[in-house]
Design goal:
Shape of chain A: elongated
Number of helices of chain A: 21
Distance between the termini of chain A: 65 Å
Helix content of chain A: 55-70%
Structural class of chain B: alpha/beta
Largest sheet of chain A: 6 strands, mixed
Radius of gyration of chain B: 35 Å
Helix content of chain B: 55-70%
Oligomer: heterodimer
Number of helices of chain B: 19
Strand order of the largest sheet of chain A: 6-9-10-3-11-12
Largest sheet of chain B: 6 strands, mixed
Strand order of the largest sheet of chain B: 6-7-8-3-9-10
Chain lengths: ~575, ~600
């Protein structure tokens, strides 16, 4: 709620204006019966048609004022809530862009996406609801009761009692309903999860003939949702009619108390009854208020989680202009992921000279990717130092640092757009020639040219219309285009067959002779071509040196070598 | 936001349609009839609830009349006790009827939801893999969640609401006409005005909404991409560009949405205003009639109340109609899925495959996903039981397709596959699939405990069996290091584990399933060679005396297979043992040399 309020505050002027116009509209509606009362009491009782027409004219003026109010509050409320949504989306997006990798690991990209899209929409709807409908209920109630009391002060105790009972009922409705609607929401999430998993894992479900297991899971989730739906809507089924009954009895009491009333005040009685029905109709919106409030609060809480993330890293002061070579040097560097019990990499010390290629090999989960993530400051070493291009990475400006480093990640990820736009992602100012050179080096030129539109071919979301190997080659080309001083290849040739991989790696070498290249690979044949090789196991560096050095000194390296090349080592 | 409409719950994906104009169903009558049939049994009591709805309209119809009489009595100084008692009775009945109606409706509509949802899932789970490969999962998800909700809740609630309104309108109109035709005409003016207003507004909003949807689609696409690819964005320092792109789309969307909201938002307040004017027309004309002595004061009171009773149904009916239309359209989409061709049912007399030996023969098989580009062009191959077969070839050569055909995920174009002397089609599908233990490159894990994940193919396995399967797969060590061990729940479907660890779990799953024929489709591509070696040992142990198929890029993985098949251009290019193929000096030896760096 606080979050929503803080955005409302930014547009407080417009908000207040919208609510004022809403009040104008509501009051106009309420005043009509008051003048209708005058028509009856003055015009009809006095048999004076000119009075009737006079009050009619006043009513018309009021109705028109109400129209102005209605139109204005509509324009204002639409604009304000869309603006709030616009700002909220923008703020979340900016916040996310400013977060460190560690924060993003915490929040998870999928969760961020639903927050910017669905949750913001909920809040827009709520905010619009407040200005359009929700506040109308209290304004109508208060206004109607005030007018009732002014016109017939005798009715005050009755009205007070009706009001008290209704408020109590509404309060109970909210109190009992809110937690049930919250449960409902969580059951809905559960159903979503089960459906998503079923769809994502359909191949395995079919392979294991586990359709019935999934069916049981789904039925369980669906039944849970239905049950909590019934529980939630029944609260309203109990309270809604009760509130109606209370107000209706107000009408009966009004009539009863006026039973011996002076006939000249009959108009007022009619007006009073009218007020009561207006109150009745406006209370009909209670269920919507409840629903909206539950959803908006849940959404706001989820959004708040993002805002409460503090960037895990401070940007360094060291900026551009300074010399930057391709050296990478780890000095006793360790890194522990937040929440992890032990370091992902520990006490790593090695040095890569400019232009050198370093192969990194080791078992899955041994910390290879974490190790290279410290170079472009995706994470900062928790202990020790990582010196990149001659500067202590932790004190270097990230933008400056990353300008000189290109990375090809394990997961080949491309964006919607043409192939050229995707390649240019690595360097917005690249010329057509640069792009072609890079694509050639990555062995991507030929298949790109084979598409009817060549470099202008559109890629679907995530590049769905390419094979895994083609995507990887485009990612490599994208990295080469930025002419990096340091190039990091994170096991990015796994989907290439061996022949293509070999061609690509040779081309990379000749294309960027100056660059320091860090290559993570599972294939011993790939790291063997590097000048030096770093062997990782369980976050520790088990060896660093040339192939022949390691073949002599590093038993782990020997084991990997024989597992892949050294004959039938394991039969 | 009119009351009486169902709470609209929204899951992922639904924002796309929220606020959009109602879609038009193709064949309302047929769809509704089918809905009626599908939900038979689940909607018991629905008729009673509708009847209650009719009763609920009684209070709207009669209370203004009684109030009017009471006003008349007061005006003329007559006692009103009887009238008040009647009114009180009417209100109490109204309360009871509304309560019962809402209370039972809650249960009935949810029963219908459940029935439809189960019917949809029941149909979906039997659809062939091709269906899931062709459709976006997000879209299918919103069928399972939002569509079903909107279909049944809207249909049941709207139907009840519609009944109330219809009876209210008919009843109120009858009484009004009987009391004063002239005033009835005066009341009708506002209704006609509202009708034209609604028409004018919806005509304009249709375009605006489609604009809004277009911008929303673009914006959501941008968000989805840039956030899921945020690591790349940051690595290439494109935060500013992405933010600028986002800002532009965000502001485009905001403009379109504001316009649509303003125009469509005119409907409700203007309707209110027109009703106010209607109210004043009644007040003035009734006042004049009354002053002339042609009607009683009480009738003014009744008419003023009726005008309020009257306006609401008319405003809401348009809304309800739209909701009903989109609900029926949603039902059509749901039925569209239910009507998809399921995996063909087993032929009568299908053989239950039990403990197959694993003799497999491919006889001249052809297959294509798309008729224009055939994938397999005549593969013939004999695999004696117990053979370890490896399939290699470039991406897209059709390696996985062979597996898809073997497991009957897809059915053959032409040719046949013979298992243990019988055509695959002669076995019951379930028993056939149980014969295969499959490990895929995409690790499919569920948001359940590790234990449940491993025992996915063999629910009755004991913890000891699960642990020994995990040990055989080399997964035991890392599982015991997790905080909860085998009971650790994979909250994010396994994303909290490394790719290699996930793969080890799926291998343990296949080990535990104890299937006679093993299939490993790039199963070890993402684990390192040492881990792979451990897995290999497990697999070798498992595959002794079992037929196994292994697809791999890494040739070291498959070196000691009994039979290596090189697929190229949809055909078998080379076939033999590792040594034979290396000395043959063809594609295989080329690939091998490139990989081993020799």
């Amino acid at each position: 709620m606080k979050l929503i309020l803080s955005y409302v505050k930014r547009h407080l002027g417009m908000y207040i204006a919208a609510v004022s116009f809403l009040a104008l509209e509501t009051i106009a509606e309420l005043l009509l019966p008051a003048f209708m009362a005058s028509i009856v009491d003055v015009g009809i009782m006095g048999k004076d048609i000119s009075q009737i027409l006079r009050y009619g004219a006043i009513m018309l003026a009021i109705a028109l004022a109400g129209a102005v109010g209605a139109i204005m509050r509509n324009v204002l409320s639409s604009r304000t809530s869309q603006l709030i949504g616009f700002e909220l989306r923008g703020d979340i997006y900016k916040k996310v862009m400013s977060l460190s990798f560690e924060n993003i690991d915490n929040v998870k990209p999928a969760a961020i996406i639903t927050r910017i899209t669905n949750d913001v929409t909920q809040i827009i709807q709520f905010s619009q609801g407040i200005m359009r409908m929700i506040l109308k209920t209290p304004i109508t109630c208060i206004g109607a009761i005030a007018l009732l009391i002014i016109q017939t002060p005798r009715q005050f105790p009755v009205m007070a009692a009706i009001l008290a009972i209704s408020s109590l009922l509404i309060y109970s409705n909210m109190k009992i309903g809110y937690p049930r609607y919250s449960i409902l929401q969580s059951k809905l999430d559960r159903l979503n999860t089960v459906s998503r998993e079923f769809l994502a894992n359909i191949r395995v479900v079919k392979a294991f003939s586990a359709e019935e297991i999934e069916s049981a899971k789904f039925q369980d989730a669906a039944a849970g949702l239905s049950q909590s739906s019934v529980r939630a809507t029944r609260v309203l089924a109990v309270f809604g009619p009760l509130i109606n009954l209370t107000v209706n009895f107000g009408i009966i009491l009004l009539l009863y108390l006026s039973r011996s009333q002076n006939a000249s005040e009959i108009g007022r009685l009619m007006a009073s009854i009218n007020y009561m029905t207006q109150v009745l109709f406006s209370l009909g919106n209670i269920s919507n208020i409840l629903n909206n409030a539950v959803r908006a609060t849940a959404s706001a809480n989820r959004i708040k989680e993002i805002f409460s993330e503090n960037p895990a890293q401070q940007d360094g002061a060291l900026v551009g202009g300074e010399a930057f070579d391709g050296t990478v040097s780890f000095e006793n560097a360790s890194f522990t992921y937040s929440g992890a019990s032990r370091p992902a990499v520990e006490n790593i010390t090695f040095r890569a000279e400019q232009g050198e290629s370093i192969g990194i090999i080791g078992s899955t989960g041994s910390g290879k990717t974490t190790l290279v993530s410290l170079v472009p400051r995706f994470y900062d070493a928790s202990e020790g130092r990582v010196v990149v291009g001659g500067h202590d990475a932790a004190e270097t400006n990230m933008d400056f640092l990353r300008r000189h480093i290109a990375i090809v990640p394990q997961k080949a990820l491309l964006f919607t757009g043409t192939i050229e736009e995707n390649l240019r992602f690595g360097n917005p100012s690249a010329t057509g020639g640069d792009i072609k050179d890079a694509a050639m080096a990555a062995s991507a030129h030929d298949f790109i040219e084979s598409f009817p539109q060549g470099y202008n071919s559109m890629l679907g979301q995530g590049g769905v219309n390419l094979s895994g190997g083609q995507k990887q080659r485009l990612c490599i080309a994208r990295a080469l285009i930025s002419n990096p001083k340091i190039l990091i290849l994170d096991d990015c040739t796994s989907a290439l067959d061996a022949t293509t991989e070999s061609v690509v790696l040779n081309a990379i070498r000749s294309e960027s002779k100056e660059a320091t290249v860090l290559i993570i690979s599972q294939r011993i044949s790939t790291v063997m071509r590097c000048e030096k090789i770093l062997v990782m196991e369980d976050g520790l560096m088990k060896g660093f040196g040339t192939h022949s050095q390691l073949m002599e000194s590093c038993s782990l390296y020997q084991a990997i070598y024989s597992s892949q090349i050294g004959g039938k080592a394991y039969v | 936001m009119s009351d009486g409409l169902p709470p609209q719950r929204r899951g992922p994906g639904s924002f796309v349609r929220s606020g959009a104009r109602a879609e038009k169903p193709k064949d309302t009558g047929k769809t509704v009839a089918r809905l009626w049939k599908t939900t038979s049994g689940a909607r018991k009591g629905f008729g009673w609830v509708l009847l209650l709805s009719v009763l609920a309209s009684a209070s709207s119809i009669f209370s203004p009349l009684i109030i009017g009489s009471a006003v008349n009595s007061i005006a003329s100084g007559n006692p009103i006790a009887a009238l008040i008692a009647a009114l009180a009775a009417l209100y109490v009945c109204d309360w009871l009827v509304r309560f019962l109606q809402a209370f039972f409706m809650a249960a009935i509509s949810q029963k219908v939801v459940l029935r439809l949802r189960e019917a949809l899932f029941g149909a979906m789970k039997n659809l062939p893999l091709a269906f899931f490969d062709l459709h976006q999962h997000g879209e299918l998800m919103s069928r399972l969640t939002n569509d079903i909700d909107s279909v049944s809740t809207t249909l049941s609630d709207s139907l009840a609401q519609l009944m109330v309104y219809m009876f209210t309108i008919i009843g109120v109109l009858a009484i009004m006409l009987a009391s004063s035709p002239l005033l009835t005409i005066a009341s009708a003016i506002s209704i006609v005005l509202v009708y034209f207003l609604t028409k004018a507004v919806t005509k304009r909003t249709r375009l605006l909404y489609s604009d809004q949807q277009r911008f929303l689609g673009k914006l959501n696409g941008q968000i989805e991409e840039s956030i899921s690819g945020i690591n790349i964005v940051k690595a290439f320092r494109r935060e500013e560009d992405m933010s600028a792109e986002f800002e532009a789309m965000n502001s485009d969307y905001c403009k379109a949405a504001t316009q649509a909201a303003i125009i469509s938002g005119f409907l409700m307040p203007l309707t209110g205003v027109i009703n106010n004017i209607g109210y004043l027309i009644i007040a003035v004309s009734a006042g004049i009639l009354c002053a002339q002595g042609r009607i009683s004061v009480g009738l003014i009171s009744s008419f003023l109340l009726y005008s309020r009773q009257f306006q609401r149904p008319f405003v809401d009916i348009a809304n309800i109609y739209n909701n009903l239309q989109s609900a029926v359209a949603g039902a059509e989409r749901v039925f569209g899925i239910i009507d998809e061709e399921p995996e063909p049912i087993d032929a009568p007399g299908a053989i239950e495959l039990k403990k197959p030996r694993g003799d497999i023969e491919f006889r001249n098989i052809h297959f294509s996903y798309d008729p224009l580009s055939p994938i397999l062009k005549g593969i013939s191959l004999k695999v004696p039981a117990g053979t370890r077969v490896a399939i290699v070839g470039e991406t897209g050569a059709g390696k996985t397709t062979i597996i898809n055909l073997l497991t009957r995920f897809y059915d053959l174009g032409s040719g046949s596959i013979i298992l243990d002397g019988n055509d695959l089609k002669s076995y019951s599908r379930e028993s056939l699939r149980k014969a295969f233990g499959i490990v895929l490159q995409d690790t499919s894990l569920f948001g359940d405990s590790i234990r449940a994940n491993i025992s996915y193919g063999n629910r009755d396995a004991s913890l000891e069996e699960i642990i020994s399967a995990a040990e055989a797969a080399g997964a035991h060590a890392f599982i015991t290091r997790l905080s909860e061990g085998y009971d650790t729940v994979l909250e994010q479907g396994g994303n909290e584990l490394s790719q290699g660890e996930r793969q080890l779990i799926t291998i343990a799953r296949a080990v535990l399933a104890q299937s006679p024929i093993l299939i490993l489709d790039e199963a070890t591509s993402s684990v390192d060679t040492l881990t792979e070696q451990k897995i290999r040992q497990a697999v070798l142990m498992l595959s002794s005396n079992r037929t196994s198929f292994m697809i791999a890029h890494r040739l070291s993985t498959i070196r000691e297979s009994d039979m290596i098949i090189v697929i190229a251009d949809g055909q078998i290019a080379e076939m033999g043992t590792h040594d034979e193929l290396v000395s043959f000096g063809g594609r295989y030896s080329e690939m091998y040399q490139a990989q081993s760096g020799e």
